[in-house]
Design a protein that fits this description.
The complex is a heterodimer. By secondary structure, chain A is α/β, with parallel strands linked by helices. Chain A is built from 15 helices and 13 strands. A five-stranded parallel sheet of chain A has the order 3-6-9-1-10. Chain A has a two-stranded parallel sheet with strand order 2-11. The longest helix of chain A is centred in the N-terminal third of the chain and has 22 residues. Chain B is about 70% helix and about 0% strand. In chain B, α19 packs antiparallel against α20 and α21 runs antiparallel to α23. In chain B, about 35% of the residues are buried. Classes of the chains: A alpha/beta, B mainly alpha. Chains A and B meet through α1, α10 and α13 of A and α3, α4 and α5 of B.
Chain lengths: ~325, ~650
């Protein structure tokens, strides 16, 4: 299949996926789009929002639309890492010998829903670090590969809620996107009511299998990005580094730490995926700008002043987007 | 066309158009910059004493800045990548063109490259350079208009200068103008007569060099006056040194005590007489007829003024009589060959009863007659002066008529060399030479060759006759030398006078007026003495600088010497009533007590632009000059000297 044909297929699958998810999820187009972009980019998604906004439903719907294995873990404070990763159990063999046998945890699936991830302790939260980055699990001294594609779709309640443990920076950095789910509009809410209280529950058709998804992930990585666009992504990330020459004033004022290089990687990769969804064959500044917020918002560590003044990382990212020029090299004046 | 070629062609068109548009903007920016410079320069000129920039230079600067601005922008040729970036941003093409350009530069072909370029080519085909890069009026246009308007308005604003600076500028101008005029006049003098002596030439050249320096250097008034005074003194000494030579002094004294027609004046006199004769024409020697004609015409004029009213028989008869009288006068004038303009017209006007025209024409004829009478009178005076011309060598030497004496000697030489003289002729020559020895004693070496010539002429031998001629030639040469030295002395004195004029002009801050300080020697003119002649305005040629009167109000003063004059008009002018003494104490008598005179004085309006010290210095210099030239009566000299010496 030629690249052009692959792109056409991608577009078709994209539209189908949107349509299938749209059967269940009302509104939240940006959330749906963001989640799909992350999936096609091979990244994990952290969905944040108050309970009842459809975060879990979205992930469940996606799992239904994608022909992938799906597991769900409900994170609680007493959840242990072994509850996620699996554990070695002493079992008796038919020959009567007793031996250790690894019992796989729920993480061994293509699509893992980590529901209310911030309700677990940091120890348990960190258990997923290796899986998310290396796509493997080390248990009992043995490294076990996870099946690809592997995605973690985590949901979390706003961190200031009772009984939550903020995710450590290293954990946060491993999420490709952090999508903030807001309240639905009146029209959307009405539609939600109509769909959930009347008639039959719609069924979701499977439109994409794992192998095709892997191909699409490869296709996304092939999308060319012009140097100025790459440069823009780099400058955006560098602008988040406080106390450096590239830092913006707001960065110096409100940030303790800026984005890691993963931020730039994620931004460009997401931009590529978005370009394909727009029917383009190259990444544009607009792609980078549109994915900058979900990529960077969880990677910026605010300082005390920002906390005190209730300045959010979203505000800082928006400010940086305003201040950093798109093209460093313009036409001669 | 390949997709990439189409993209490059489209981008090249846009780049070229962008370059042209930018060049226009650059030209406008250059003009604005130049306008700014002009404005700045004008402001500086208005506020500070810096010279103004000529409009031509402004125009050149404007052109240069516009060209530089245009070139600067035109030289900045963007590459296709830059243009692609710009077009992507302008048209929101989502970096399609820049991605295509970048990928085309990459070597290996792949599917992505082809896709990106094809996609970009589709968009490039819709590009319209005219719409994308329209030629708009420069953004700087309002600023250019503002700057130009301000610069133009500023041109009408007078510069702010201190009074001291204005005075200094005026001084500089007067000094330069004076120096220039001095140079002109001095060079003209040298052209008329080149100095005979090397020392004279050197002294005059020194004066010329100084004049040149004065016209070029920016000296202050004090410095210029000081230098001028120093040089004047030097030239005076030089002239005095020449004039003090015994032979030269004697020649000058003898010339002073005799007629102005002597020497070179004789030729001049002849020329003047010839000119007057030509002007008189047929009227020469007909003084009586001229007087009669004038008398007749005056009588006719009086009768015409008393003519009875028109229409009466008496009036017709009177007009008939007048016409007859006029016709007679006209006939007499015509017969004598004297042209009287207006006489025939007067007769015609009388016949037509046009009394006004008649009187006007009669007046014209009378004026013509007056002029002829004046010319005749002048000719008569010149003839009287010519009559005083000495004829013999002794007389000529006695009267200091060096030129005439030289001519006489040359005549004698010609006679001696023409052949053997007869006894009476020889005796006559011997007598003349004998009588010449005594007056020649005053002329240094002149007696020696005369004596030798007398001895040789007395022998009557042809050989001695030739020797006598040679000695006479030596005498003529000696006379010529004395004459040249005298002329050189006069010339140096003349230049010194010019320097004094310049000094005075600079001190007074007015234009150069040469001739005002003519020394007695210079006015005497080549050994002559001052005398009256036909009225001339030449010596009153004034070269006032246009602003020279600034700072003085001389409305209360009238200067008679500037009035038109003729033969008679050089008589004592009427005194300014403001200067008439109101009270006279004592009695003026040489050697007696000094009379005291109180004058009303002249009220001069306004504020003096000259410092007191400079005015005092000028007054002292003028007073000293007047004293030196015996312009101050002897009885007053001491008092005048004391008065002006007391100036601090």
């Amino acid at each position: 299949m030629t690249t052009e044909e692959q792109i056409a297929k991608f577009k078709t699958v994209w539209n189908d996926l949107r349509a299938e998810v749209g059967k269940i999820i009302v509104g939240h187009d940006d959330i749906v789009e963001g989640t799909l972009i992350a999936i096609f980019s091979g990244g994990h998604v952290l969905l944040e929002g108050v309970p009842g906004l459809g975060k879990t439903l979205l992930v469940r719907t996606l799992s239904e639309a994608l022909d992938l294995s799906f597991n769900r873990i409900q994170f609680t404070p007493d959840l242990m890492p072994s509850d996620i990763l699996g554990t070695n159990l002493v079992v008796e063999s038919p020959e009567g010998r007793r031996e250790f046998q690894f019992q796989r945890g729920p993480i061994f699936a293509h699509l893992l829903l980590a529901d209310e991830i911030n309700r677990a302790t940091p120890k348990t939260q960190s258990a997923m670090l290796e899986a998310m980055q290396e796509k493997s699990v080390t248990a009992g001294g043995e490294i076990r590969r996870l099946a690809e594609p592997f995605f973690v779709m985590a949901t979390q309640n706003p961190i200031d809620q009772e009984g939550t443990y903020p995710l450590p920076e290293a954990q946060l950095d491993r999420f490709f996107f952090k999508l903030v789910v807001g309240y639905p509009s009146a029209a959307d809410l009405t539609e939600v009511l109509n769909r959930t209280t009347e008639g039959d529950k719609p069924t979701v058709r499977r439109v994409l299998d794992g192998a095709t998804l892997m191909e699409f992930q490869k296709l996304v990585r092939g999308v060319p990005a012009p140097t100025p666009v790459k440069d823009y992504a780099v400058r955006l990330v560098l602008a988040t580094h406080p106390k450096t020459d590239t830092a913006q004033p707001i960065t110096d004022q409100y940030l303790r730490f800026g984005s890691s290089p993963r931020g730039a990687q994620s931004m460009l990769l997401a931009g590529k995926a978005r370009a394909l969804t727009q029917g383009r064959f190259n990444v544009s500044f607009e792609d980078i700008r549109s994915v900058a917020l979900p990529v960077l918002r969880h990677r910026l560590i605010l300082n005390f002043e920002a906390e005190a003044e209730a300045v959010t990382s979203d505000h800082i990212v928006r400010e940086i987007l305003k201040k950093v020029p798109k093209a460093a090299e313009a036409l001669p004046a | 066309m390949e997709p990439m070629q189409a993209i490059e062609a489209a981008l090249t068109r846009i780049a070229r158009r962008h370059q042209i548009a930018k060049a226009f903007q650059g030209v406008a920016a250059g003009i604005l910059f130049a306008c700014g410079l002009v404005l700045l320069s004008e402001c500086v000129h208005k506020l500070a004493p810096v010279p103004t920039v000529p409009p031509g230079l402004y125009a050149a600067m404007l052109l240069l800045c516009a060209a530089a601005g245009g070139l600067r922008q035109a030289m900045k040729r963007p590459n296709l990548g830059q243009v692609a970036n710009w077009v992507d941003q302008e048209l929101n093409l989502q970096e399609r063109l820049s991605a295509a350009c970048e990928m085309s530069a990459r070597g290996a072909a792949n599917e992505w490259k082809s896709l990106v370029i094809r996609d970009a080519a589709v968009h490039a085909s819709t590009l319209n350079p005219q719409a994308l890069v329209p030629f708009r009026p420069p953004r700087t246009l309002p600023w250019i208009a503002l700057a130009s308007g301000l610069a133009l308005a500023l041109a009408f604003v007078p510069p702010i200068r201190s009074a001291a600076f204005r005075q200094k500028e005026q001084d500089t101008k007067v000094i330069a103008e004076t120096a220039k005029r001095f140079l002109e006049v001095t060079r003209k003098q040298i052209e008329q007569r080149h100095p005979a002596l090397e020392t004279t030439e050197k002294a005059i050249n020194e004066a010329l060099e100084f004049g040149q320096r004065l016209s070029e250097a920016r000296l202050t008034r004090g410095e210029a006056i000081k230098d001028l005074a120093s040089l004047t003194q030097k030239l005076d000494q030089e002239a005095q040194h020449l004039a003090d030579r015994p032979g030269v002094r004697s020649l000058e004294q003898a010339a002073r005590s005799s007629t102005p027609a002597s020497g070179k004046g004789a030729t001049d006199l002849q020329q003047r007489m010839q000119a007057l004769k030509e002007a008189l024409g047929a009227a020469e020697g007909k003084d009586k007829l001229l007087a009669k004609l004038k008398q007749d015409l005056e009588a006719v004029q009086k009768m015409a003024e008393k003519l009875p009213g028109a229409g009466s028989p008496e009036a017709a008869a009177a007009r008939e009589n007048l016409a007859k009288a006029l016709e007679n006068a006209a006939r007499e004038a015509a017969e004598a060959g004297i042209p009287l303009e207006g006489l025939d017209e007067a007769v015609a006007a009388l016949k037509n009863a046009q009394t006004d025209f008649f009187l006007r024409d009669i007046q014209g004829a009378l004026s013509s007659l007056d002029k002829l009478q004046q010319l005749a009178q002048s000719l008569q005076q010149l003839r009287q002066e010519q009559a005083k011309e000495a004829k013999t060598l002794p007389d000529q030497l006695k009267m200091g008529q060096a030129q005439a004496a030289k001519q006489r000697l040359e005549e004698m030489i010609r006679k001696l060399r023409s052949g053997p003289l007869s006894a009476p002729e020889r005796q006559e020559m011997i007598d003349e030479l004998q009588k010449s020895i005594a007056p020649a004693e005053q002329y240094e070496k002149l007696p020696e060759p005369l004596k030798k010539a007398l001895q040789r002429a007395g022998s009557g031998q042809p050989k001695d006759q030739e020797g006598a001629a040679q000695h006479l030639a030596e005498a003529a040469k000696e006379l010529d030398r004395l004459q040249q030295e005298l002329a050189d002395s006069d010339q140096i004195a003349g230049v010194a006078d010019l320097l004094r004029d310049a000094q005075e002009a600079i001190a007074a801050g007015r234009g150069f007026n040469e001739g005002k300080n003519e020394s007695r020697r210079a006015r005497a003119g080549q050994g002559g003495k001052p005398g009256r002649g036909v009225g001339t305005w030449a010596q009153d040629a004034r070269f006032e600088a246009p602003e020279s009167s600034e700072g003085w109000d001389n409305s209360g003063i009238t200067q008679q010497t500037l009035d038109p004059r003729s033969v008679e008009s050089e008589d004592a002018p009427e005194k300014n009533p403001n200067l008439a003494p109101t009270r006279v104490k004592g009695k003026m008598s040489p050697g007696g007590s000094m009379p005291s005179i109180t004058l009303k004085g002249v009220h001069i309006k306004g504020q003096s632009a000259v410092r007191f010290t400079e005015a005092a210095a000028t007054a002292q210099a003028e007073a000293q000059k007047a004293l030196n030239q015996d312009k101050v009566p002897r009885a007053y000299q001491d008092s005048v000297k004391t008065y002006f010496d007391d100036f601090k």
